[in-house]
Amino acid sequence: MQRIKTDGLRSGLKYAVPNLSDRPGGDRTIAAQHIHALLPSEPGTYALILHCHTAGEQPVGALGQVRTEVGFYIYVGSALGPGGIRGRVARHLREAKKPHWHIDYLRRTMPVTAIWYAETASVQEHHWALTIDNWSQAEKLVPGFGASDCQCESHLFFCSVPPSLPAVRERLETTEDQTAVVVKSVAMDR
Ligand SMILES: [Zn+2]
């Protein structure tokens, strides 16, 4: 059985869904459906935790070939448009037929294992990226990834072990202008 664990939003509530991982794309669809119902449609900031199973090189649009390692990647983004966090994350969980963002390329080979998110009215993705960049668990970054339109070095960070939200939650819960927000997480337990 595959379980989707929630933290914060509806703590203690667990969803058990059939394990369809032997059907191509099946588990992704099921997980996306369940997660869709859990996430708010309010605007916000999010981080996708991706699991990289094999080291190698991947083409990532204008960035060219990007080297990936076995471990976990944290990708930071904003969902301030229509559909909010729910709409944007649901899009990331579907495999993009036509890649648009850098992250669409990585999603072809890396499943999302967890999502961290906060309802934020203003842009906090660069603050999150800088916070994670300065965090000891984030060992490396992929230069320029997801950061074509900003001053950040990157919006993609590598951790060799699963990144721990409690370890960085407090720093993410204070916005750039010192407003308090609540960071929640949804994890797919395989
Ligand atoms: Zn940025």
In short:
This protein has 190 residues and is of the alpha+beta class.
Description:
The termini are close together. α1 packs antiparallel against α2 (84-93). The chain has an eight-stranded antiparallel sheet, with helices on both faces. It has one domain (2-189). Mean pLDDT is 85; it is low at 5-29. With 190 residues, the protein is of the alpha+beta class. It is built from five helices and ten strands; from the N terminus they run ββαββββααβαββαβ. Bound molecules: zinc ion. Zinc ion binds at residues 125-126, 129, 147, 150, 152, 155. Zinc ion (ZN) is lined by residues 125-126, 129, 147, 150, 152, 155.
